[in-house]
Amino acid sequence: MFVDIPANGEPLICPSCKSLILPGQATDRIAFANDNPDGLASMNGLYHAPCAKPLLSVKRAYDMLGNWGSGF
Ligand SMILES: [Zn+2]
């Protein structure tokens, strides 16, 4: 399948629903740290805003746990 690659080099395919992200659609970026020990950085990317929503709440919880962990 031909995918138009924009100037920033990222194909505009939402990793969650595997559909094209069309110009003008609301998007959210998921950005786990690249040295994330659980490999969650593989989920990084640009998602449709509704698709990113559950991931963002997972990320929030995860970041919170990470902060708790480093506090002990
Ligand atoms: Zn999507």
Descriptive overview:
With 72 residues, the protein is of the alpha+beta class. The protein has a domain at 27-70. Helix content is 31%, strand content 11%. Strands 1-2 form a two-stranded antiparallel sheet. The longest helix is centred in the last third of the chain and has 22 residues, at 49-70. It starts with 26 loop residues before the first strand and ends with a helix. 8% of the residues are buried. The model has no long low-confidence stretch (mean pLDDT 83). The structure holds zinc ion. Zinc ion binds next to strand 2. Zinc ion is lined by residues 14, 16-17, 19, 47-48, 51.
Low-confidence stretches: none
Helix content: 25-40%
Main-sheet strand order equals 1-2
Proportion in β-strands: 5-15%
Give the averaged pLDDT, no decimals: 83
The set of bound ligands, ions and cofactors reads: zinc ion
Shape: elongated
Structural class, from secondary structure content? alpha+beta
Question: Helix and strand succession?
Answer: EEH
> How far is the N terminus from the C terminus?
49 Å
Radius of gyration: 14 Å
Largest sheet: 2 strands, antiparallel
Strand segment tally: 2
How many helices does DSSP assign?
1
What keyword list fits this structure?
elongated, 1 helix, 2 strands, binds zinc ion, 72 residues, alpha+beta, two-stranded antiparallel sheet
Summarize the SSE layout with pairings.
Elements: E1 27-30, E2 45-48, H1 49-70
Antiparallel strand pairs: 1-2
This protein binds zinc ion.
Zinc ion (ZN) binds next to β2.
Quick structural gist:
The protein contains one helix and two strands. With about 70 residues, it is of the alpha+beta class. The chain has a domain of about 45 residues.
